[in-house]
Amino acid sequence: MLPLLAARDQAAPIAWRHGVPVSGRRFLADARQLANALPEDGPAINLCSDRYAFAVGLAAALIRGQASLLPPDARPDTLARLHESGDGCYALTDDAALATPGLRRVLVELPVASDAEGEAKVPSFDAMRHAVSLLTSGSTGVPQAHAKRWDTLVGDVAAAVPRLSALLGRPSLEGLTLVATVPVQHSYGLESSVLLALLGGAAFDSGRPFFPADIAQALAAVPRPRALVTTPFHLKTLLLSGVEMPQVDFVLSATAPLSPQLAAQAEQALGGPMIEIYGSTETGQVAARRTTQTDVWETFGEIRVRAEHGKAGERFIFEGDFVPEPTAMADILELQDERHFRLLGRANDLIHVAGRRSSLGFLNYHLNSIPGVQDGAFWLPEDVADGVVRPVAFVVAPELSHDAIVAQLRQRLEAVFVPRRVVHVRSLPREATGKLGVRALAEFARAQLAGEGDTVSFTHEVPQDHPCFAGHFPGQPLLPGALILAEVREAIARVPALVARLGAEPTLAAAKFLAPVGPGASLAIQLVPEAGAAGGVRFEVRNGEVVAASGRWTRPVEPA
């Protein structure tokens, strides 16, 4: 049996909400009260955006004997897929306006219970209990579940706390308050905010600030010692904003490697050491490094890493301590010994150009290290007409020219990896955690590069419980043609060349609806520019092998 909370003073803050401390005793009272209101069966889909409401919901589900499902988002199609699993799940939310079609729901309204006096009994749970399932979207968009036992979560924090404390020169994390920009439903956001408080002695701010001014306000609202838990993408945006930041006692970053330059800038601007976490959804956080001092990672606790050679090539296996079974990482490492390594890049990031090998992670690292580049990513086209791969760089760098960026990259990269095209964009299609999905980047890149005569394709998943199905039609739900056309319009708006051709408000010249589209359909939208600069854009929407709709958009006729 392992407890819900680490040994701590229950009168001390376990969380802060809008600058007001919430004691550990109050947290336990809220969790017990909510547990009494939960359905008898589960699991609970925890959709709470307030970090404290999330923590109360997580604890209440455990007390009720239920696991918590943590989806990557609260979109109707994501919830519909969870509802289809048929396991009796219900939605737990602190947002009364959030749509949860088809799901039972429990609204978490804070405060849940009145405060209590004295020490409260801390509940304990079977170490082998299924506590949470972290859901990540695979390449198909279908949530993939990664189940975690309670002893795995407890062990994860128990191994991390001594290492983090040592890097900070502190005996423990007691009294430290964590302000996180990362969603709590993400493995890193869960481990490095709520779990570091419940199981590691720290406290957390209940919000999830996103904009630099909001982050500054959130930090200023909690006492020191305080820490910022963030990602490289959010950190870079923060430092470029020019917003004056309150001093922090350390910065924690994960989800992608930091450049030494960005780490040094963060330490100078925020005043505390920059610490990076390495891990995965499958293993949890397994290693850390102080980026400005070394490029070598050191594992937590008794975790060991080894190389394994097989038909698929070399894999790197992490095992021991809280990791429930030997697990291969999707990365290429350079091992120093069984506890120390360098990170060379993602295994699926490896690319070959003119006989030379590199990784997209390595190229992106150097692109984002250029002063003036706010965000950037390399992309390797899949369809190469002349057999020669030419990397393309997409950048958010309003003050840098194409030539200036190429000149900087020539100093940092081998010539074969210097892009011939540098495409300036307003933003990249990153997720809330700052990650840039392979599929999202590929569709974005093809849309940005589409030119005269280029055909562009997009995919759209129709939610099972789209609100329109209630009226179109009971017993035989159909997606209205107007919504199909709206998806086509949205696809056109994502392609700069087509927007330039049709204008901001194109005219629908023709449309045919040839086959019904129902719940759960996967639509392929194909946009085909007509010959000539003044031509329109033909479209075809396929549902599998069947053409569901087709038609044509044109530029609106100017009034005489």
Give structural notes.
This protein is an alpha/beta fold and 560 residues long. The protein has three domains: 2-344, ANL, N-terminal domain (Rossmann fold); 354-424, GMP Synthetase, Chain A, domain 3; 450-554, Roll (Thiol Ester Dehydrase, Chain A), CATH 3.10.129. Helices cover 27% and strands 30% of the residues. It is built from 13 helices and 32 strands. An eleven-stranded mixed β-sheet has the order 3-2-12-11-13-14-15-16-17-22-21, with helices on both faces. A six-stranded mixed β-sheet has the order 7-6-4-5-9-10, with helices on both faces. α1 crosses α2 (51-64) and α7 crosses α8. The radius of gyration is 25 Å and the shape is globular. The relative contact order is 0.08.
Structural class: alpha/beta
Q: Remind me, CATH topology of the largest domain?
A: Rossmann fold
Largest sheet: 11 strands, mixed
Mean of pLDDT: 86
Record the SSE blueprint:
Blueprint: E1 2-3, E2 13-17, E3 20-23, H1 24-37, E4 44-46, H2 51-64, E5 68-70, H3 76-84, E6 90-93, E7 104-107, E8 124-125, E9 130-137, E10 143-149, H4 150-168, E11 177-180, H5 187-198, E12 203-205, H6 212-220, E13 226-230, H7 232-241, E14 250-253, H8 260-270, E15 274-280, E16 284-290, E17 297-299, E18 304-310, E19 313-320, E20 323-329, E21 331-337, E22 340-346, E23 350-353, E24 356-359, H9 360-367, E25 375-379, E26 392-396, H10 402-412, E27 421-424, H11 438-449, E28 456-461, H12 481-493, H13 496-502, E29 507-513, E30 522-529, E31 537-543, E32 546-554
Parallel strand pairs: 2-12, 4-5, 4-6, 5-9, 6-7, 11-12, 11-13, 13-14, 14-15, 26-27
Antiparallel strand pairs: 1-8, 2-3, 9-10, 15-16, 16-17, 17-22, 18-19, 19-20, 21-22, 23-24, 25-26, 28-30, 29-32, 30-31, 31-32
